[in-house]
Every structure is written in C-alpha cells, then in structure tokens.
Known about the structure:
By secondary structure, this protein is α+β, with helices and mostly antiparallel strands. It has three domains: 18-234, Heat Shock Protein 90 (2-Layer Sandwich), CATH 3.30.565.10; 242-374, Ribosomal Protein S5, domain 2, CATH 3.30.230.10; 396-525 and 584-612, Rossmann fold, CATH 3.40.50.670. It is 33% helix and 22% strand. The strands form five sheets. Strands 3, 4, 5, 6, 7, 8, 9, 10 and 11 form a nine-stranded mixed beta sheet that branches. A six-stranded mixed beta sheet has the order 17-19-18-20-21-25, with helices on one face. Strands 12-13-16-14-15 form a five-stranded mixed beta sheet, with helices on both faces. A hairpin with a 2-residue loop joins strand 14 (270-275) and strand 15.
Amino acid sequence: MSKKIEDKYKVLDPISHILLRPQTYVGSNKPHTSTKWVLRDGRFQQREVTVIPSFLKIFDEVLMNSVDESKRNPRLDRIDVVVNAEEGWISVTDNGGIPVEIHKDHGVYVPEVIFGNLMSGSNYDDTDQRVVAGLNGLGAKLTNVFSKRFVISTCDRKKKFHQEFTNNMRDRSPAKVSGSRTPFTQVMYHPDLERFGLERIDEDHLDMIRKRVVDVAACNCGLKVTFNTEMLCFKAFDDYVSMYQPLFFSDRSKDGLWSVAVGHSDAGFQQVSFVNSTETYDGGTHVDHVMGQIITELRAHFLKRHKVDVKPSELRGHMFLYLDCTVVNPSFSSQTKEKLITEQKEFGHSYQVPPKLIASIIKSEIVQSILDWVQQKKAAEESKAARQLNKSLDRLKVDKLIDAKSRDRRNCQLFIFEGDSASAAFRKYRDPQTQGAFSLRGKFINAAEITTQRLVDNNEVVNLMGSLGLKLGQKAKVSDLRYGKVFLAVDADQDGNSIAALLINFMFKFWPELFEFRMVHKLETPIVIARNNRSKKKTPFFSQPDYSKWLPTVNPKDWEIKYKKGLSALVDDEYQDIIQNPRLTLISTDERSAESLSAWFGKDSEPRKVELLR
C-alpha cells in the first residue's frame, strides 16, 4: 500500500528533528563497545567500556562552555563538576558569569537566549581568531534538548538569573532575577535517559565523564577543576602524560600553544590528542603535523646509521604521541569533533619539533624496539623466502647438472667445476652411474654477510642446492643428500683457491654438518706435468715446491716440461687420470673454523690484516 504524500514528506520543528536524528548533532544514540583509557588509582588503564556517544557528547557541550569562557574571561579559574548517578543529574559550575541583561533583539534575558534558543551563539563572526571549541552555536542547547529538566543559574556580579527548562526544552519557566554579587554560572540537567536507552548513569559512563574532566584539567593548567569534590590540578601537561606511562620525552613551545610528548608503544601507533581542550579521538592534521616531522628525522637516521629504509607506518607503530595544541578557528570532520581537518597552513601559527626531542627519541628504547622489529621482520621474510625456495627445490630441474644415475646416492660423487670449459671432457671419462658434475659460472658468492633473499635470488646458489639436495634453514641429512661426496674441482691457482674457499664458506655457514660427514674434498689438479722423452711416462706435480725439489734430480734434456694453467689445459689422458684416479684433500673443520672463515670473508677487514701478517 503506497504512503500518503503527507506521510512521505514532513516538516519537523527543530527540536523534533534533533530528537529524531541525534547522530547529526551529537553522535550515535546506540551502544558502542570499545577499548578506552580509564583512570584507576591515579593511572590510566585500557578497559573495554560500552557507552552511548551522544550521552557523553551532551555532557561535553556543557563542560566546554565553561572551558571556552575561561579563555575569554581571565577571572574564571575554577570549574566544578558533579555527577549524581543515583538521582540521575549532572551539574557544571564555574566562577564566571553571564550578563544578566535583556537582549534588545529578542526581548528576553541573555542567558535564556544562550541556552534556550537553538540558533543563538557567540561564535558566528568568522573574522574572529577563535581558539575555543565552540563553532556552530548549538553547544549546550543540545544538552537542553536531550534533557527532561535543564536548569541555568548565573550571576554577573550585579544580578542573579535562574530559569528551568523541561520536556526537552519545549517548556520553560519564567526567568527569576534577583540581586547578588558572587559571580558564577551553573548548568544542572537531568538527561532524558530513556532516549539514550539507559536506566541510570552507569559505571562506564561515569568513568568516561571523569576521564573527560581530567583531560580538561590537563589541557588548562591554570584552571582549578573538581570532579565530585576531587581536586584535579596539573602543573604541566607532562604530569598528565605520566599517568599513561612513566618514561617519555616532551617539549612545550615557547608560546605555550603546543605541548608534545612521545613515548614507546608496543601496541601499534597510539595517540591522545587535544585541540583547544577538545579530545580528538581520531587524531587529524595536528597529529600528522607533529608525527610527520618525527618520522622524517627517524627515517633519515635509520638510513644513515643502520642502512635500512623503514616505512613511515612502521616507524609510527612503535610510538605513543600525546599532544595538546591550540588551533585558530579549528574545523572538525563532524559535530562530534573527533578528528581535526584544518590544514596545517591555517593553524594560525607553526610548530617545529626541536632537535633535542628528536635526539632523545633516537637514544631511547623506541629506536631499539624498531631495530628489534626490523630484525624480526627480516627473519620472518627470510624464513618465508626459505620455505618458498625449499618448496621449489623439490621440483627444480638443474640444466647445468650432469647427473649421476645410480640410486645409491651415498656412493655418488659431485664434481664442482669453475666454468663449462673445465667440465667439457668430463662426460668422456666419468662413471655415469656414480659421477656427476656441476659447473659454476664466474666467481661464487660470499655467503658471510649475504641475506636469505639474495641467496634465493641467486640462480647459481639455488642450482647448486638443488644438485646436492640441500634445503635452506634445514639441517642436512645423509639420507636426503643426492651425493655422498663433493669434489671441489678448481684450478690450482689463486683464483681457483679463492673459489674453493667461497664454496667452503657457503657450505659451512648453512650446513656445517657436511664436514662432519667427511664428504667435502678438494680435488688436487696438477700445475706442472713432466713427460719423459724415452718412456713417455708423465709425472704430475701439484705444487711448486714439489716441482722445484724434483727438478735438480733429473736431466732436463730427458724431460718435456709443461705448465698447466687450469683444468682446461689438460689433455685427454691427463684429464682422464684426475677423474678416474682423483687425488683428494679432505676438508675438515675444528673449533677455529668459524672464526677463521669470519676473518677472511666478513665485513671487518682488521681480522684479515692480522691473518695476512702471521
């Protein structure tokens, strides 16, 4: 059945519209459960609370009326808040006063205009440089609308004013005016609890109201503030921050408009921030302004000192920012003022994070926690890369591998050659069942300081691991290896020895048990071969001292001497001999092996100098 046109289109009076759509004016009218900071025994603790945001907002509107007035009236230096949860009323009293005069345009007293007229206010001149929280003139009138009873009393040192509103501001009593000299303003209201789905002012709401009063005291150190007779006074914003955590680093600008403190956080980025005494739960441009400067300096520090580029979001995740600032004509994302959206250039002033604060942060556990996190992240990434590599190794086909065919892999030998030319004749003389070959291309990597990711990205390393049956991060087992012996078949020169040492260093770093298995050998290759002119018999020499010792014992005319520059210089029968009758040196390790390899291949050059001078 279609609706009547009158039911579809309605005209509501302002009060009815506010009550029907509270979220537009004071936030959600539904229960909201979240973790909030709550004061317990003089310390802030995080606790899960369930509150009605709009209920807290109407209290804040009254409280901020007094706070804003204190900025206009230097005589106003005290605010007293009382919450009577049993009787269901709240009052906010200050020692300022509202003019008790007839407003010429409206024909009623000024206090009634302020608290009983929805469109009234003192913040409508956009040319003013406002540093108060009020903006659109609604303020405490919204509290009046959401109250069964709302009472305003004030004295301007000459006259005392008293008026009561009921029925959600629809009804009001005649104003009562009398003589008095003691200045004050008091708002006492009975919130319409049913509209908030509440039966009484419960503990969660009482905790959050108290927290808000404490916040106001901290942001206005010149004010004396009480909550249910409890005096709340702060000499400085730092005193407030110390209620969250004992160790932090702080700064207060010379003009007093910015109070900043930074502490460590182990629960991601956290912030408690205020603009003109209003808490900005969701932060905003003021938080970004301060954190942006800190992040820029910290990021430069990590790049220069630790050679690591840490993302801004990762740096933020280790800090807790406390911020109280004054912004001219602030703009917020909504009437509930949970996020500042004023651009930094429009703050009315600037704030520069001082080098002293940056230096303190750099020396603190904040930076150390970031370093620890970087290492943990690096380890996690390397572990992930290793898992992915090991998974791919199971199905890896190594094109450069000349594989042995025997199923008894413990009796198989893998010759590692430096280059394809050195292994060219291998197929002719090898035992296909038990002998395989892998050819390196160029100089092998130095594994001393290499990351797992670089290993994963190095095809030479991956192919060698696949050929041997090794897994990164996993201890080698004889039963899993594809070869029982490894022969380092490198040239008998400085370059060859360097490649052999790099291979040994690589295997020792990741699989030292290979040496316990006595499976790594260096294949000795001749540097000189002497051929007898009569018998044609060849005598190989594997070192210059051995050759020099032999040479004086023979007649040089009876011998043909040839120097061999690498394996590729060997002729067929010479090559056949080293493959079928290899001369081997077992590579073994001892308690000094790790230290020695670190000295020769580590970043620090000093240990190498010591070794060279021995």
